[in-house]
């Protein structure tokens, strides 16, 4: 995959569930969420929600990183936007901030495999309205990182995706699971060489 840093409008984006309101320019993408849109499969809540708008690129490249800055006006519980790899309704992963209340929100990730979602989170202040994400692929393994300034990244999640054998789709999403609508803005998008370096520490245990 060639490195990309400009002219986002000309990237080969494809929608899965196009929102009613959005815009794509050379420098940014804006999505206005529709109420009652969400992504979740089965675990704990016992429902299957699969109607959030997702905008993605397709690649068979096994080593790369995708970087994006998000800015958002979330205000109702579970309003969210972030980075995603959506393979199909039962196999996907995402990293985002989900609004909770005026005190805190959830910075977290969801990995969904074979129709079951999990959710790993940490609480952050509710007044944070911007976050950078970096999504990296090393063959069938993936890493999501976040950053407040686009310079220093912190690991959110490492996972293996069994359905990501060759071609994958990755990109951005935004949704409002409850009676809400807000604008999510995505800028500073880049595709680079893989920034998630190969492990060079502990050797595998001997059998």
Itemize the secondary structure elements and their pairings:
Elements: E1 14-16, E2 21-24, E3 28-32, E4 39-41, E5 48-50, E6 54-59, E7 63-72, E8 80-88, E9 91-99, E10 104-113, E11 116-117, E12 120-125, E13 130-138, E14 141-147, E15 154-160, E16 168-175, E17 183-192
Antiparallel strand pairs: 1-6, 2-3, 3-17, 4-5, 6-16, 7-13, 7-17, 8-9, 8-16, 9-10, 10-11, 10-12, 13-14, 14-15
Task: Describe the model.
The chain has one domain: Sandwich (Jelly Rolls). The chain is an all-beta fold and 207 residues long. The protein is 0% helix and 54% strand. β9 and β10 form a beta hairpin. The mean pLDDT is 95.
Distance between the termini: 38 Å
Number of helices: 0
Q: Would you count the extended β strands for me? A: 17
Mean pLDDT: 95
Biggest sheet record = 8 strands, antiparallel
Protein name: DUF1349 domain-containing protein
InterPro entries: ConA-like_dom_sf, DUF1349, UCP022704
Short characterization:
The chain is mostly beta strands and 207 residues long.
List keywords for this structure.
207 residues; Jelly Rolls; 7-stranded antiparallel β-sheet
């Amino acid at each position: 995959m060639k490195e990309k840093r400009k002219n986002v409008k000309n990237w080969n984006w494809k929608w899965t569930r196009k929102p009613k309101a959005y815009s794509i320019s050379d420098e940014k993408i804006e999505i206005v969420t529709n109420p009652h849109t969400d992504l979740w499969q089965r675990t704990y809540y016992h429902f299957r929600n699969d109607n959030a708008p997702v905008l993605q690129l397709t690649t068979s490249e096994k080593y790369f990183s995708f970087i994006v800055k998000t800015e958002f006006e979330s205000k109702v519980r579970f309003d969210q936007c972030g980075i995603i790899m959506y393979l199909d309704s039962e196999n996907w992963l995402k990293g985002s901030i989900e609004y909770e209340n005026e005190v805190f929100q959830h910075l977290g990730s969801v990995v969904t495999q074979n129709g079951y979602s999990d959710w790993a989170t940490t609480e952050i202040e509710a007044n944070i309205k911007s976050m950078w994400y970096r999504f990296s692929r090393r063959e069938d393994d993936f890493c999501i990182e976040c950053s407040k300034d686009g310079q220093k990244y912190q690991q959110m999640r490492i996972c293996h995706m069994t359905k990501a054998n060759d071609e994958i789709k990755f990109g951005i999403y935004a949704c409002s699971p409850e009676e809400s609508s807000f604008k999510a803005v995505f800028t500073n998008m880049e595709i680079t060489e893989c920034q998630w370096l190969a492990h060079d520490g502990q050797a595998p245990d001997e059998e």
